Amino acid sequence: MTRFVYLKDVVTLNFDAENCYGCGMCLEVCPHGVLVRDNGKIRIKDRDACMECGACARNCPAEALKVRTGVGCAAAVINAALGRTSSSCCCVIEPEETDAKTKSAAGKSSGCC
Amino acid sequence: MSPPRLGQPFVVSSVSTPAGTVPQVSAELTPADFWGTIKVRWGVRRTNYKVDPGLYALGCPDEKSPVLISANYKLSFDTLRSALKGRHLWILVLDTNGINVWCAAGKGTFSTAELVRRLQFSRLEEVVSHRRLIVPQLAAPGVAAHEVKKLSGFKVTYGPIRAADLPAFIDRGFKANSAMRLKTFSTWERLVLVPVELVAALKMAIIVVPIFVFLGGLGGSSGYWDDLMNHGLFAAAALLSGVLAGTVLAPILLPWLPGRAFALKGTILGLLVALALVFVWNADSMEGFITLENLAWILIVSALSAYFSMNFTGASTYTSLSGVKKEMQWAVPLQIAAAAVGLALWSWSLFTA
Questions:
Q1: pTM of the predicted structure, to 2 decimals
Q2: Is residue A93 a part of any domain in this protein?
Q3: For A37-59, what is the mean pLDDT?
Q4: For residues A97 and A85, what is the distance between their CA atoms, to the nearest angstrom?
Q5: Shared-domain flag, residues A24 and A60
Q6: Which of A97, B9, B182, B210 is the most buried (most CB within 10 A)?
Q7: What span, in angstroms and rounded, lies between the C-alpha atoms of A101 and B201?
Q8: What is the band of B353 on the pLDDT scale with cuts at 50, 70, 90?
Q9: How far apart, in Å, are the Cα atoms of B75 and each of A90, A112, B82?
Q10: Residues A20 and A62 in one domain
């Protein structure tokens, strides 16, 4: 199986071992095996594999994981920079944007997701 | 909020429950379902391919049957039910605006709040005697399992990433093995994303390409139609090569293209494609390969390929926003510069030919 790795040393994932009580939810939800349990303790094994989806942080009851989440999508970054709200595409920079999904005049629809 | 309609084309019957009548669906997809999948994969009304949110019965579930949670993108719903042939389960469809599970979770529509709201509206606690929900793992960016438990009393168990692994997951006692938890990006998974990318790009090309063909006729010294056939058609071939490189070849060749940044992969691919085009187009040319026109198109094709490859980050399964922003910092200015210089060279070549 081909293993994809994106850019080195860019990821904003942060793990605070002090707060962690080892429930292991992060291990279940991470789609890229970024975290592992070593001798009962959780640690980050492969930081560059993180895609900042935020699943681990969202499901951490101890708030031991922090990450600046977002969809890694160039079209969304461009749309955000141009002040457009993308319509059809899942690519949005700001997740709170939940207004009516009317087709924007820009009609930017990248094929993401 | 209203219950799912029984009249939806994929509903085969209904079952009655303590919480009212629930539409029943089959695990067997019909030709209409397959046709729908093909259409959305090609971008035809992809943003309005929806299932009514609410509770559905797959087969003949009872009060002990597992409950699966899904998004109301019909492609997601069809993938889920067709993976569960011969099973009897409940499927609770959330309102994600017709967006798939992963994207909806990232966007915040597949959320704790929507899940709890939909649970209460469908009165699931009256339909089943257990308190377990199988939520797709890829919904985890939007759903907090511990909060769902606190708000509804239902325990979230994250199911496998791929619906195809669900039967094995259920048979293992609702446990995933490590392979079920990892998101892949196989050649086939990349290939099915290509048509949507291609169609979106071709919609732009259909306007831009004729303009270049027309302009091509204005340059040169052999008369309008000869010049159009020469410079204009070369322009069309080059533009389409750039689009195809970035939207078709780059996704397919992704793991084998050098570099990590998508824009870099696209630039290298674009250069190779442009050189091949120049070589083929000028095979019997007297002028040789090093002309202003060729140089112009090598720059523009590379820029186009880089741009469209970079846009494929949105479809990929492993790129972070931090990474995308970082590569765009150098890639976008370079793409604009290459395209601008290319266009200037091309104009110059037309008037000096």
A1: 0.89
A2: yes
A3: 96
A4: 8
A5: yes
A6: B182
A7: 22
A8: low
A9: 15, 15, 11
A10: yes
For residues B194 and B179, state if they share a domain.
no
d(Cα B326, Cα A33) in Å, to the nearest integer? 23
Q: Provide the terminal-to-terminal Cα distance of chain A, rounded to the nearest Å.
A: 21
> For chain B, what is the domain count?
2
B137 reaches A (C-beta below 8 A): yes
Paired strand residues for B267: none
Pairing, β B155-159 against β B132-136:
parallel
How near does any CA of chain A get to the CA of B290, in Å?
34
Query: Quick check: B41 contacting A, CB < 8 Å?
Result: no
Check whether B329 has a pLDDT greater than 70.
yes
Among the partner residues B109, B144, B320, nearest to A10 by beta-carbon distance: B320
- For residues B314 and B230, membership in a common domain is answered with yes
Alpha helix positions (H), chain B: 31-41, 74-82, 101-107, 112-122, 124-127, 145-152, 166-171, 187-191, 194-218, 224-227, 233-244, 250-253, 262-281, 292-311, 321-352
Least confident span in A81-95, A99-113, B4-18, B208-222 = A99-113
pLDDT beyond 80 at A16? yes
Q: What average pLDDT is seen over chain B?
A: 95
In terms of residue numbers, what domain contains A31?
Answer: 14-66
Query: Which of A35, A85, A88, A96 is best to mutate for the B interface (most B CBs within 10 A)?
Result: A88
Q: What is the pLDDT of residue B128?
A: 97
Mutate to test the interface with A, among B322, B329, B336 (most CBs of A within 10 A): B322
ipTM of the prediction:
0.90
- Counting every residue written for chain B, the total comes to 353
Q: Which residues of A touch B266 (CB under 8 A)?
A: none
Q: Is B207 on the interface with A (CB under 8 A)?
A: no
**Confidence band, pLDDT 50/70/90 cuts, at residue A102:** very low
From chain B, pick out residues whose CB is under 8 angstroms from the CB of A33.
178, 181-182
State the total domains in chain A: 2
Q: Measured between alpha carbons, how far apart are the two ends of chain B, in Å? A: 67
Q: How far apart are CA B58 and CA B220, in angstroms?
A: 67
Q: What whole-number distance in Å separates Cα of residue B330 and Cα of residue B320?
A: 16
| Backbone φ/ψ region at B158: left (φ over 0), alpha (ψ -120 to 50), beta | beta
Place of tokens 């994981």: A65
